[in-house]
Amino acid sequence: MNAAAVTKRQQTLQRKLLAWYDRNGRDLPWRRSKDPYAVWLSEIMLQQTQVATVMPYYERFVRRFPTVHVLAAARIDAVLKLWAGLGYYSRARNLHKAAAEIVREHDGRFPDSVEALRTLPGIGRYTAAAIASICFGRRAAVVDGNVIRVLTRLFNISDDVRKPATVNRLWGIADSHAPARRCGDYNQAIMELGATVCTPGATARCDICPLQAQCAARKAQTVAELPRKSAKAVVRHETHIVAAICADDRWLIRRRPSDGLWGGLWELPSAQVSGAATVEAVRRLARSLGVPRCTVSTQPFCVSNHQLSHRLIRFTGYRCSLQGTEAADSMNADLRWVTLAQFSKLGISQAMRRIAEALGAGESNDRGTRSISRRQSRHGKPVRSAGTPRAASRRIA
DNA sequence: AATTCGGGGGC
DNA sequence: GCCCCAGAATT
Question: In which residue ranges of chain A is CATH 3.90.79.10 found?
C-alpha cells in the first residue's frame, strides 16, 4: 500500500528486472493481450501448475470457451471435461461460478480493483493482484512460489517459508518493491526470473541473473539452501475399492459429490475401506448403489496406486456382473450406464482413466473368448498400472 | 495455523 | 525417487 518511500535500491531492482524481462520474457499465449478473461483463465490454470503442463489445456479451453459469456452459459460437465487431467478441480468449478457472477453482477466486465476481484470465487490475493496489475495497470504486488524464491535469496531470508508469517513478511517486501508504472510487467518479470533463472536448489543460474550484483544469498553463498522449508507432512496410505459393474456392454458410473477430492468428476463407483480390499466391501458398495445382487470376481482386474501430494491411494478394481435386469437407482441423476468409450469422454480423473484403461484392455483381449487372459496393449506390452503386483495383473474370468 | 485439494515436469 | 509448481478455500 505504501509506494511513498521508494529507495534508490528499489528503483535499481525494478529497472534491471524490467530490462531483463523485455529481452527474455517468453512468448506465452496469455501474454498476447491484456484481455482479463485470457489472463484470468491462465492465472487460475497456473495455480500450482507449471507452464508446460498448462499450455495444451489453455489452448483447448479458450477455443471452446472464448469469452466469459460462453463460459458462463456452459454446463459444469463441459467445463470439467476440458479440465480433466489438470488437477485441483475446484479451480474449474470456481471458474465457472465466477464467470456466471461476472456476467450476472458485473454485466460481463471484469472488476478492475484488487478488492473487487478478490470477492470472486477462486480468486485469492495472488490472482487478484495479478489480474489487477497486468490487465488494469494497478500497482499491486504478487507473491507466488517463484517470487518467494527470488525474494528470500535476494535478501537472504532464511525464515521457514511454510509458515504463513514468513509469506506475509514476503508480501510486505514485495509490496514495497512494486513500481507504480508497469507493475504488471514487473510482476511477470520477477516470476519469470524465478521460473527460468532463479530456479530451485542447485539449478539456479546465478551466472546469467540480472540481479546477481544485488543478491544477498549469492554473496553469502546460501542460494542453494533458500528458500528454507520445514519438513512436509508424511503421506498417508489408503485402500480404495472400485466396483466395475457391468450389464451387457454398459458400466455403472457415478458423479462424485461436488466438494472434496475429484469433486464433480465421474467415476467407476469407488469407496475407501479400512482394512484390505475385499469382495464383501465391493458387494456392499454395489448394494448402496441400488444393485442388490451381483457376481463379484474373486480376482481384481486391476490394482493401481495413485500418488497425491499428501496421500497414496491404492485402488483395487473388481468386475461385477449384474444378475437379473434390475437397474440401479433410476431416480439418481448422479448415476448412469455408459459404454467404456462414453466414460472415457467424460470428465474423469487420471486415476480413474488408468483404471478404465485396465478394464478396457481386459475387454478387448477377452473378446470372443472366455479363457484366462493376460491383458495386453496394442503394442504388445503388458498393461500394468503403477505398483500392480504381477499376480493381480491377470484376470480370471 | 494447519489441512485439503492433482498431476506432472525435470532432475 | 525427489522437489517443485504464476494458490485458494476450509477447518
Answer: 236-395
Task: For nucleotide B7, give the residue with the nearest CA to its C1'.
Answer: A87
A280 is an active site residue: no
Q: Are A338 and A250 in contact (CB under 8 A)?
A: yes
CA dist., res. A217 & res. A34, Å (int) = 35
CATH code for the domain defined by A8-225? 1.10.340.30
In angstroms, the CA of A183 and the C1' of C6 are apart by 15
Domain A236-395: give its CATH code: 3.90.79.10
DSSP H helices in chain A: 8-24, 36-45, 51-64, 68-73, 76-83, 90-105, 114-118, 125-136, 145-154, 164-177, 183-196, 216-220, 279-288, 340-344, 350-366
Where are the domain boundaries for CATH 1.10.340.30 in chain A? 8-225
User: Which bases of chain C come closer than 7 Å to a protein CB?
Assistant: 3-9
Q: Name which of A141, A157, A144 is nearest A227 in CA terms.
A: A157
Distance, in Å, from the CA atom of A393 to the CA atom of A397, rounded to the nearest integer, reads: 13
User: Low-confidence residues of chain A, pLDDT below 70?
Assistant: 1-5, 324-330, 363-397
Q: Using the CA of A54, give the nucleotide whose C1' is nearest.
A: B8
Nearest to A282 by CA among A252, A307, A305, A327: A252
Cell 544477498 sits on residue: A216
Distance A102 CA to B7 C1' (A): 29
Alpha carbon distance A161, A232 (integer Å) = 12
Q: Return d(Cα A350, Cα A261) in angstroms, integer.
A: 12
- Predicted local confidence at residue A325, as pLDDT: 57
3-state SS, residue A13: helix
What is d(CA A70, CA A9) in angstroms, rounded to the nearest whole number?
Answer: 46
The reply to whether A31 has its C-beta less than 7 Å from any atom of strand C is yes
Distance A241 CA to B5 C1' (A): 21
**Angle subtended at Cα A354 by Cα A375 and Cα A238, rounded to the nearest 5 degrees:** 110
- Residue pair A222/A168 in contact (Cβ under 8 Å)? The answer is no
Euclidean distance between the first and final Cα of chain A, in Å? 68
pLDDT digits (tens, 9 = 90+) for A2-28: 445 679 999 999 999 999 999 999 999
